[in-house]
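Hi Q.,

Before the meeting this afternoon, I wanted you to have the thymidine-5'-phosphate prediction in hand. No need to reply - just skim if you have a minute. The sequence and ligand are here:
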Amino acid sequence: MALFITFEGGEGSGKSTQAKLLLKKLQEHNIPAVLTHEPGGTALGNELRRVLKRKQGTPIAPGAELFLFAASRVQLVAELIRPALEQGKVVICDRFVHSTLVYQGYGRGLDLTVIEMVNKIATQNLRPDLTILLDISPEQGLMRRRSLEDRFEQEALSFHRSVGEGYVKLAAADPDRWLVIDASLPKQKIADIIWETVSKLLPNFSA
Ligand code: TMP
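Predicted structure with the ligand bound:
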């Protein structure tokens, strides 16, 4: 059954780990599923990811950054996400449209309405059925990182605070589609909470 689930969260929130655990759980139950991530997930997307994350080189203007993330998204939706959903698979995506709203909107200060419009064009109106937010304070999240390796991790604490606040606002505005989890909980506890919600969205599924 086609189901589109996205993971969101600040740096060091553990969302990539949880996305992998969810994929494993689905596979254990023989539910066809794919895991992908943004920016990236395609050959073009991976090239854009390198440009977007690298510390050296020409500074990237916020508007250019917005369109680079959008370009990666157009390609990922067309090449992987839509075809997988059409085949009835569960698609898990580590970051999606909400990352742009919080990082480029709340973080960089770009107009949220403009970002929503760009997101709609990039996804052709595809929306996640469920978005899982791993909520963590920036202090805690950045501490979990061994070294601050990319352009985003190196941003000021105030930038990461705005990102975190943005996530909380987005989730509160659409509670039916968001599952907010305290990222400081033990890893297995988080995985159990996620599975409890996801398994309910799978018709004819009994745990
Ligand atoms: P990550 O996948 O390793 O978390 O790195 C992606 C970085 O890019 C992360 O710092 C968040 C940022 N990002 C944006 O700023 N906007 C976006 O639309 C996406 C998908 C990611």
